[in-house]
Recover the amino acids of this structure.
């Protein structure tokens, strides 16, 4: 079995079973499976697929990239004998795009949204013997109003669009919980007060039960607390700095979380009735604050210059699904080896395991939802639902410092002047801000911004090595605040009509994309070079212009890896360096001014 690791690292319980591995599978191109009762008798499913890999991938064992909008899955499982008297939950990490789930032929639930997790209580469907789970999936290949991100709506990948992912693409698993159990836990750090605010909810007969909280740092207990429950929802603030200055970020990072010192607190939350343990969850959090001030992004109340790399989150053998948990680690380590302190996860709500490793290893993340291609009222509501689920699932990860609901006017192609689409951009900004007050939000990364916490600009007009006039124009366009705000790098204004710059930090959040062919690869980049030495020279030239800007307070270079026909990565699609990564680090580590002139 691939992907055997625990799939929800922010909320860990002991009693779980991984359902990845071989499943029965079938295409249902005529959409006859439901009528013919495949959910009750899955014997019509003749093929085998390796979950959690989509049928389009090599690792699935099928490797068919053509359109198949309806597919079915089924497998048998046995519930451990010692799970009697427990509630049994069936979890799906992610299924693209719509899923109907049946257990022993009985319908248990429906979910729409290709990037977020969901679960169902299946206790009532179980027989106590060999059980069967069946999943019917609908993924409309050509529908441009679903959040599809980089998944192309035409059959063959081209330009910036990649092969689709259909069906189950993250771990499927079972979990046993007591009828009275913790249903949610939320951590909100307050580094000024030295507190972490805990919020939790309990399902079942909770009145009079106790919740014990134990917080430790580097295996030493910092604080404990016990709360007797009177309500389903409870909130408590616990102090972890305890008036000790070296725990704060005043002199150095102290016990705060940063990419340089990814300090994490372990937290064990136990729900008890007397001496009986009803539920126990292992979790963690980081003491971290992000805000903007004077045209700069601040991390833990200090200006922090972000050096990000665009990360598509694709792998040649698994597409959206990482082939192993170590693949997440490798990508983060490669990026850090090159001197980047974070990434923008592009057009993909990533697997929670990636965020876990970003937390552990110290790596900033801008989290971005897949966009639709076209606008409609349905498209707007679909994106909204997916964001609600993404923020609820991923709120506790300290590595995530920015949410990116919209990108380059994808899904809102007329936002420049269309009031309805502008209102959708504003609605997404304010919705996310209403759900999470602790992070930054970008209304439309790239151009045609409305209300936003960061002025995020995309500019690929750096020119080739012989295009001296274009190089000079690129350099000038980044030089001052006035130059960058008046630029139209994609022949689009930086702000939509009726909106203007209001002093927010300005970051160059897509640029570069130098194409460099390695081996027999073919493809494209925004400019092209023919060798590693020329690649480094071009990279150094572009980065010199970025670092000399008087207004930029960070950047996101395109991109970490090649993907399919795109050969503009710093490493190849299979993660082989295109040049000496130490040389990239030297360029990224060159001096730049962390403090910029006050925004006006």
């Amino acid at each position: 079995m691939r992907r055997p690791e625990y799939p929800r690292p922010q909320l860990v319980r002991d009693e779980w079973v991984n359902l990845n591995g071989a499943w029965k599978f079938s295409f249902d191109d005529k959409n006859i499976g439901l009528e013919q009762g495949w959910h009750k008798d899955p014997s019509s499913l003749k093929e085998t697929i390796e979950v959690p890999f989509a049928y389009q991938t090599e690792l699935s064992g099928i490797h068919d990239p053509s359109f198949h909008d309806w597919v079915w899955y089924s497998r048998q499982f046995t519930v451990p004998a010692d799970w009697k008297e427990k509630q049994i939950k069936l979890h799906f990490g992610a299924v693209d795009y719509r899923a109907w789930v049946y257990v022993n032929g009985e319908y248990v639930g429906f979910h729409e949204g290709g990037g977020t997790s969901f679960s169902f209580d299946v206790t009532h469907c179980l027989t106590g013997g060999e059980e069967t789970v069946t999943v019917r999936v609908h993924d409309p290949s050509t529908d441009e109003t679903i959040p599809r991100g980089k998944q192309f709506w035409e059959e063959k990948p081209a330009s910036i669009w990649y092969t689709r992912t259909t069906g189950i693409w993250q771990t499927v698993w079972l979990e046993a919980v007591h009828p009275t159990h913790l249903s949610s836990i939320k951590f909100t750090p307050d580094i000024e007060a030295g507190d972490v605010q805990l919020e939790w909810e309990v399902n079942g007969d909770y009145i009079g039960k106790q919740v014990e909280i134990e917080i430790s740092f580097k295996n030493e207990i910092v604080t404990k607390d016990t709360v007797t429950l009177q309500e389903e929802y409870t909130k408590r603030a616990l102090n972890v700095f305890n008036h000790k200055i070296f725990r704060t970020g005043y002199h150095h990072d102290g016990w705060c979380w940063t990419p340089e010192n990814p300090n994490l607190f372990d937290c064990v939350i136990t729900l008890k009735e007397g001496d009986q343990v009803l539920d126990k969850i292992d979790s963690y959090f980081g003491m971290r604050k992000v805000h903007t001030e004077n045209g700069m992004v601040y991390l833990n109340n200090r200006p922090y210059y972000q050096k990000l790399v665009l990360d598509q989150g694709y792998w040649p053998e698994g597409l959206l699904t990482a082939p192993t948990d170590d693949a997440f680690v490798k990508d983060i380590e490669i990026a850090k080896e090159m001197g980047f302190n974070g990434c923008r996860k592009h057009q993909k709500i990533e697997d929670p395991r990636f965020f876990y490793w970003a937390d552990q290893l110290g790596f900033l993340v801008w989290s971005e939802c897949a966009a639709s291609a076209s606008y409609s009222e349905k498209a707007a509501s679909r994106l909204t639902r997916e964001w609600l689920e993404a923020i609820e699932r991923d709120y506790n990860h300290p590595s995530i410092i920015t949410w990116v609901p919209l990108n380059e006017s994808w899904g809102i192609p007329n936002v420049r002047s269309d009031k309805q689409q502008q209102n959708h951009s504003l609605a997404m900004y304010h919705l996310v801000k209403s759900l999470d007050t602790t992070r930054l939000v970008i209304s439309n990364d790239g151009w045609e911004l409305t209300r936003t916490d960061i002025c995020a600009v995309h500019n690929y007009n750096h020119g080739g090595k012989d295009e001296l006039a274009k190089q000079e124009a690129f350099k000038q366009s980044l030089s001052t605040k006035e130059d960058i705000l008046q630029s139209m790098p994609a022949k689009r204004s930086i702000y939509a009509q009726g909106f203007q710059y209001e002093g927010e930090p300005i970051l160059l959040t897509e640029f570069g994309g130098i194409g460099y062919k390695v081996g027999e690869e073919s493809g494209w980049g925004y400019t092209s070079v023919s060798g590693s030495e020329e690649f480094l020279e071009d990279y150094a030239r572009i980065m010199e212009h970025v670092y000399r800007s008087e207004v930029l307070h960070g950047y996101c270079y395109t991109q970490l890896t090649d993907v399919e026909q795109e050969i503009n990565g710093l490493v190849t699609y299979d993660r082989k360096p295109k040049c000496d990564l130490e040389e990239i680090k030297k360029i990224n580590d060159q001096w730049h001014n962390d403090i910029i002139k006050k925004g006006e």
